[in-house]
Amino acid sequence: MKLSTLLQGIETAGFCPDTEITKVTCDSRQLKKGDLFICIRGQRFDGHAHAAEVLERGAAAIVAEQPLPLPGVIRVPDSREAYAKICANFYGNPQRELTLAAVTGTSGKTTITCLIRDILRAAGKKVGLIGTIQGEIGDMIIPARHTTPDPLQLYSMLSRMRAAGVKTVVMEASSHALDQQRLAGLRFRCAAFTGLSHEHLDYHQTMENYYQAKRRLFSQADAAVINSDDPYGRRLIEELTIPLTRYALKDPAADYTAHSIESGAAGSRFMVMAGSRLMRAQLSMPGSYSVSNALCAAACAAQLGVEPEEAFAALSKSAGVPGRMEVIAVPLPFTVIRDYAHTPEEIRSVLSAVRSFAPARVVTLFGCPGERDRTKRPEMARAVARYSDAAILTSDNPRGEDPMQIIEDALAGFQGAKMPVKVFADRYDAIRWALENGRERDILMLLGKGHEDYQVLEYGTIFFDERFIVRELVEKMNQGDSI
Fold it and tell me: Judging by DSSP bridges, how do beta strands 454-457 and 460-463 pair with one another?
């Protein structure tokens, strides 16, 4: 593809011959002769520092946002924005032939996008999905490395979706992706905001920065769906000028509301008001926050052409989302549920929901991620202490940190709590102990890993699928084997 074609719609300065470009990359390690190299400035790496090196290795041209005393350099105001738009041009701008919807917020993105997918599929639409668990092109599954992919991967996926006959794409929009302009060049028929809580401040530094990153999505949207129970949602409602739909459990003036919620391990039943329409609804996932997610999904689906009655009928048949309030079916006298909750607010939401229907003890097994915001570790423990009868503190993804130091940080949150707390640095040992010591009618919550089938340790990544581990351990127990 010609360089001039790749640069269409991008403000540029400087001169470079209109050469043929083989590929686009911002990773100097992957560059090959004839590639266009984009200099991206990150937290730990600055592509501008490698410009001379990639020219020597055969880069056809370089896109940069700062002056470089080198030939073949094209200046742009923002390299990240240019990178996304160049990738769109490289793949023939597939987004122009797709209807796009996105969900952002601290929690609920994965569940809501999956529920929107289920609604659209039930309506007979071929849907593409881009999110934390995986990407989907119709029935094809694509493993996910990031919640919102790098622009080159993102536009590659959109191109494949277009070729496969997909018409509607639902995606998660992370704050990192929005801050890094990965979604530049996209226009969304509908964008949803679930709320904001203390998370990712190791990256954003302040809640205001975090909010502003999320807010960017709505400058690229035709309509918005906003959680009006959330204070940041109410602020966003005041600031937006595009058409918007409010959903809420507490705000009676919202457009989508729910009441008479009944929850158990098997799911939720509730009544819905959608505008002037009153209807019964049910969901395979328990908890009021799951009902809130369902309201958001139905409100988004309405913006995509699916009536509320049809949306809630589809949700009643949805199997739920892997790793989100997922019951692990095993022959035990108590219930085992795994969930991805890994922030204080998510833990509060999940455990308060479980507390409301638990027939006996709530036992919570959790850990805190390593090399992430340390200040939330005791807050996570405090949330567990508030809603649990017993806790098992262990590892999540410790990465390069000492697991016991992470545990020590979290233990401060249990100070003054009148409940037993067991500590295991090894998560496998923690699960084994929990299964051996569970009591009849308990609910054992495994929090933090959710859908993940791995654990990141100091020496590398290992296989760690809690569904597999629980089933394996229970099978050994029931055979009388030592575990």
Answer: antiparallel
